[in-house]
Amino acid sequence: MNNRETVAFVGTGVMGNSMAGHLLRAGYHVNVYTRTKEKAENLISSGAKWCSTPAEAVADAKYTITIVGYPKDVEEVYFGKDGILENAKQGSFVIDMTTSTPSLAKKIYAAAKEKGIYSLDAPVSGGDVGAKEARLTIMVGGDKDAYKTCLPLFERMGKNIVLQGEAGSGQHTKMCNQIAIATNMIGVCESLAYAKSSGLDPEKVLETITTGAANSFSLSKLAPRILAGDFEPGFYVKHFIKDMGIALAEAEAMGLKLPGLSLAIDMYEELASKGEENSGTQALYKLWEI
After folding, report:
1. Residues labelled catalytic
2. Which of 1, 27, 222, 239 is deepest in the core (most CB within 10 A)?
3. pTM higher than the cut 0.90
């Protein structure tokens, strides 16, 4: 493929770096902006163009992809000084792949529409492994025509790509994803703690239960990391706490009680208070060890 379209990529952290790399290898021109240039050095050496501001990155881009840390970071890169929406070309596409709030996704969509720019919210799931292997799950909110146009980019980064509905729907779907993971991770950690306390070989236990009804991504992919003492982030504890907070706020606004999620966020906040905010979500197991 020799696709000479330009993509501005804002945010090259644990997941964004691999995602931008896939677009580079697919033949896109990639303009990179991230707050810490060192995190983009491998992309620059592979042919990406370094830009010192989001405005510079989007100036000649048909597509802009953002995957940053928190909703406040999304707000800043889209609406702040040298922001995306003031500088993106009319007729271009902006895609926020950060896990953020549905209300902010709708705000970006409305502001973009006024400027003749197409906007999609498209948060992802799959962690560092999914990003590296280009098999992320991508949950999209926005207009169908914009989704169809951007689908070739999504297909370079993920495998399970679904348009969920209007603007904000991608973020709502990601909340469903995070809610399901939250209590599942508690179950994984309790299962391993039980196996250890009962004198079983936890690796043999995993060999058995990952082929049955208990299996999940957390059990098959993250439990082995726990047993290996690998608590490096595929997804940061601090970002998971952010996501669960968004989900709880959205649920409260809908009059919906989520006691399992409330328990999970309490446990993760305890974990963060013990200095584990930059560890991977599997570090929850340390609550049984600390």
Report:
1. 174
2. 222
3. yes
